[in-house]
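Quick one - inputs below.
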Amino acid sequence: MTILEWMKDHLVFLDGGMGTLLQEQGLLPGEYPERWNLTHPDVVKQIQRNYFDAGSNVVNTNTFGANTLHFSASELDTVIKSALEIARAARECSTGQQPKFIALDIGPTGRLLKPYGDFDFEEAVAAFAETVRLGVKYGADLIMIETMNDSYETKAALLAAKENSSLPVFVSNAYGQDGKLMTGASPAAMVAMLEGMGADAIGVNCSLGPEQLSSVVSEYLRYASVPVLFKPNAGLPESRDEKAVFDMTPEKFAAQVTKEIGAGVRAVGGCCGTTPAYIKKLVQAAGDLSPQPVMPKHLTWASSYTHAVIFGDEPILIGERINPTGKKRLKQALLEQNLDYILGEGIRQQEKGVHILDVNVGLPGIDEAQMLKSAVCELQAIIDLPLQLDTSDMAAMELALRYYNGKAIINSVSGKEASMRAVFPLVKKYGGLVVALTLDENGIPATAEGRLVIARKIEKAAASYGIARENLLFDTLAMTVSADSAAAAVTLEALGRIRSEMGCHTSLGVSNVSFGLPDRDTVNSTFFAMALSRGLSAAIMNPDSVEMMRTYRAYRALCGMDDNCADYIAYAKEHAAAPAAVSAEEQGSVLQKAIVQGRKEQAGLAAAVLLKTIPALDIVQNEIIPALDTVGKGYEAKTVYLPQLLMSAEAAKSAFEQIKLHMTAYAGQAGEKCAVIVATVQGDIHDIGKNIVKLLLENYGFAVTDLGKDVAPEAIVAAAQKINAPLVGLSALMTTTVPAMEKTIRLLRAALPSCRIVVGGAVLNREYAGRIGADRYAQNAMETVRYAEEINGAL
Amino acid sequence: MSQVQVRQYDPLPFDRAEILRYAACRQNGSAEMTAVLENCLAEVQGTLSGRVCFCEFAIRRTEVGLDLGFLQTSSEDLKKNLQGCDRLIVFAATVGLPIDRLITRYGRVSPVKSLFFQAIGAERIESLCDSFCADMQRIYGQSGYQTRPRFSPGYGDFSLTAQRDIFRVLDCPRRIGLSLNESLLMSPSKSVTAIVGLSQKKEPCQKRACGACRQKNCEFRRM
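Output:
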């Protein structure tokens, strides 16, 4: 019998603490417990046997930290081999009569993944994969991924388990007192991601006692369609005679955990501070209970690394602005690999109120897979909205799905056989909600009935891959009403029928409907309102459209989704104030003043007004540069502080953005100064200083290429050679990364002797900079600007 | 040595003067600047939590330097700091990852906010360490001990590689969600590891570590 077969009709009893028991036997802090498989096999075996004797169905191997980060390849093999041998021996000599299984235990690596740590996602997958392969080789019955406090690392471990074994996988996370993982995920976000990837049981362990974790467990029970497991600590630690002791007795612990069985938990055990005595009490207290059935929840949802977005309760807005189609500025940003612009678009849409971001970076001449991966990684570093991955390039889709930290929306599949064959395996493997277009090899049916037939075909095909229908988000395709006056009606009818007859959720790219018509916003928002009233679940839309946002707010108020119409009233108030009219002459001084005072929005608005009458370069020369100079000189004279300098720089940047929008060809034209490359050196992840330098250099008209942080010397040299850069700026904060800076300088000197090098960062001073071979040490960003101007003048 | 213990702290009120000092302002700036700072403070409010894990060791003096129980060191500066001490506390403290997300997020769109979040994070973690050290003074004071100013790897000639030993003995990732990367930086970044000496005799000592630091022309040095 397998664990999954046993689990169908029975409660599963897991084991209790291991580390705390080994410490009692003499394991020292800092010593790897897994090594005791080799040095103290009898101690480990006795503990595991005691758990089996106490009634555990599943006992974990002593392999919590057994991975390639802590052990050499050969030692890891021996450690895991002996771990399985010990657990089997414990099982064989146990007197317990219950079915007994051995779980390969996998804990976190202790390293934090990028971007906030330095551990690459694929490296993490590879590290877990090795442990999984050895566990499979030496005969584990299932895999237990546990005590994970980061959703991303959890994903890496689960992916490794799925890719390297066919064993059942249980996944358990460690939540803090705030009910979230250390890196921010809510229980719902974890359930969405883990179920999507095919975990067989999911749940909660460690960190707190059963009472404190009760609310997290109820979230799991509320959302999960797979069995939920629960392994809390023996209460909270309290310090007694300089020893940490847990405050719950076995009886109290058993009573509390048994309550959760009544609420629906299917697998129970303990973590830190629990012993075989706790498990014995638990088995006695719960042994006669029959498990509550696991009910499928049929949720249509996506998730980010913090939260889940559920379709059906309220209309969902999917921001469409990260898509180069028809957007010159974004195209230019993509060609320049300027991710800052894309991130800015993401943040802006979030601030406007969208719930999900569509991400499309497809453009001829770029490596779409790499670009989409980068965009996903950078977006999820700073924006906590779920992402909708929008590409027809399946290699790009798969790479982005791997790196995505959550359950993504996949845009899209259609009724075409080839499309379903390519997309569904990815949905099955990585999890995901997939936008299903109601078209097939014969095109888009002219009737609602035709679109429904395709929807049903897609539903059936998805089922054959094991993908439940709630993971399909049907798009009945908004067609241009100016070309066919029945187009909108057919789309709406199909959408209504999918909602009512199939019970599935829908999404629409709303703005297609108005192509070729004047005042498109009015048509779009009216169509949007009509679609919402037919049951539309989500719209892919432009949150900059005031009409669309108004319709959305009003719809919520009218449908009773907005208590006291509070959101609507707040929104209407915010958008009522009309900007005061100011003449162009006045705007000139307004712009200068806005920059000097650091007023970002005002600077942008003033520049936009000026651009209507004054050539862009004149604005730069006569308004922006003089204002920046005033502030820069103040900073050098110490009458202006760094934050004020930055506020002015940001205000100038927002004026420059208007100028760039006005003439996308601005970059590289007259007025632009020489190229400068900036980077934080390898091993260092501090980039605030580098970002400040970059901003000021850009303000002063330099063509800056920002290579980012933790950049390899070779990559900096290659970038400098590629554009024959006259100046490279390097930053380092840590003494440990100065050797990387020195190496970069050495390689640059050999490869590009004409290139000047300026360095900065907390760890450096003038003398030190000279010793590692830099041309100049800049104590602050203004000094870098002054040096760059020197170089530019000498060219 | 004692067992490793964990403590949680509720945040104290913000010290705006300290935050401005970390943001390289010696006194109040413009009204616009203050408004930005207040926005940042409002955004960060409620997102940070303080966690500390720690453990106590006996100190042995050896021919080459100090045996701290979890680490051997020949650091002269640390030796000076621990003069007269026979025990020590080693601790790791963090205010968590949300501040890193804010620093990074605004690093892409608003360097000034990023700078302020950086400064807020610095003030938060220092305030957390102050609370923890005050607790230790209170607890150990009862048995006649006096605590020394905290001393971190990287101060003076005390090598940053001590980070590895501290992380090994405290098991920071599991206890407080703090990890160490290859270049010995910590994530979350607003975190501190340090040693606090415990001595039985009253000795005059500088309250702040600035006085003990050899970097005399530091921009952030307290006057």
